Amino acid sequence: MIYVNQLGSVVWCILAVTQGIAGFDKAEWIRNASTHEPENSHSYLDWPRIHFSGTFWFDSPTGNNLCENYDIKTFDDRFRDDPSILGWNPEGSGCFQLLDCKVTSVCYTNGDCSTHRRTDRLIGTPVFSNVDRPEAKIADIDTAYIAVPTIFGLSLHVPGAFSGKFVEAPMSNSYHKTSKREHSGHLGADFYSLLVDVDWHGEDESHSHLVKEMKQLSLQNEVQNVLSVKFNLDNFEAFSKSGKFGTGRIVGSIGVAGPAEPLHGLRHRQMHPPSSNKRFGIANFRLFTTRGKILIDLGNSLPYNEQGFPDPDVTQTLQLAYPLHQPTQFLNCDTEVVILDEINYSSNLWYEDTAGIITVPSTTTLTFNQIKEVSERPLFIRQLNNISRECEMIVLSERLDGLAVGFMGDRVFRQDPGDSWKVDAFLVKFGHPFEGIPLEIETAKSVKKKHMYSRCGKGLHVPFNQPPTAVHFTDVANSNQNGIAVFEFVGYNPDNPREIIDGQIYLYEISVHGQDTLTSSLPIVIFLYNSFEVSPGGPTWHRDIYPIFKMYSNMFPSMNNIINMASYEDVCRKIWMLKMTMALSMDDPEFMPVTRDLSRRKQRAILQWLDDPKLGDIPKPSLEDLKRDLQTALELELSTIPHI
User: pTM of the entire structure?
Assistant: First the structure.
């Protein structure tokens, strides 16, 4: 295990070299999963599964939070001591690690769950991250869009059970989970992905009946030794003077990944909060017709108080229900309903023990008629007044038509001009694939309303998706018999619209043709880089490499403890270090740069230069450079004149 201070972590993060995920083909998994029916496919929202909870540590780098910091011509070394410039954690390394995590409960194939170690020896077992390898990394896609930080290079290890590598995944479903918290502590979010290259831990597995069940089920699948994992993060402490600085709570679930599972989500049913209620988040759920049960994941859906417990002042009594008659208009407290069960979440350990997953009904099973009606009517959760027991509001509800859209593979992309890629979307209606429906891609509503832009200083406000012609895509695609619609994308040179920051951000949403958007909470996000051409005769330090390395040196001062990226001499002395880390795949925890915001064209140019580190000529300053230098000199001169 690796428990080190932050400086030691930075050294370990930079110097150690590991292998990325070997033998797992994401494109092949998506193709195969797209041909399977999701109804009987396993996931973490199923039986068997385990739940775990504990603490996570994220050493967030904040030097790249301001657009202006990317400009090497105006950045001053004096800025390093100014928190308004480099943020609340300028020495951040981007490392992510689990601390003090353990298995809190297990749920067996027969539906029984237990929190007692005497029932299963797996309960209480530690859950570690990145054993014998450097810490995982979290990186935002861009300084102007921080809604999809992605985890790279994470592995999970449960001694006596299994270990596996987490397929890199973006954050999803962020909402205001806790109240009265400063900084970012009020936010909650989740990460879905697969654990691949799973290794079952020899004879020790015989001590846990749950592990035996998971292994046997996994070995029955066409692609074996793949698990499904989802964890929720909240209560992050970003106040540097706190003893818990950089830590937060993690609660999660792990089950077996079935053949129809997407990379980063569930292909089932969803309930959403009304747009006016920011204290609730999206809830996935599944109807198991043969069991007469519903599993609902409320782990990242309910409001919590400052102590991290479900907030009864906000939620009060909650009921799961469906309309007595097929609805034709929106659901409200006047809707005649069939009550399925009340949601018992009041215990202080409920969340940690269950990861927010509940079984409905809790003590009985659905009747034949209830199964039939739930299969074709929307589910919703009503909030009742604790005293009067009257309905006060609908806090979560499924769409009246039962439609849900998601992604079989990635929805967050880092692309170079000339790249082509696919977005594989799925469409389900009450949890079943919906065939023959035209889906279309459109610019995200937030972009259309001009709410999303890059803001660099006083004069440069560049809206997202500009120029629109830099991204070409299939406008409309029909869902096939498995509910899958495939969209083709091609990227072109955006021609440096943001001047000092590479590339441009593009956001898109998917809707049923002619209807409202279905993926507003999970947009397609594209970071499209600018074209990059090296100097004739090959890259040189002064013209091609220094502008890139200087920027990273400015924004990530922790790097300078290891290597001065702005120094030709120091870089040349440590070429071996850069060759090792910059040639790795992006999903490797030791890939450089940690921020993963370097285009592949620039990466290739750097690797080419490292093989032949030519110094080259210093470029002549442009007229604009001379004007800027003169302006800076005048400002410095005036600032030194004493006031009379």
Answer: 0.91
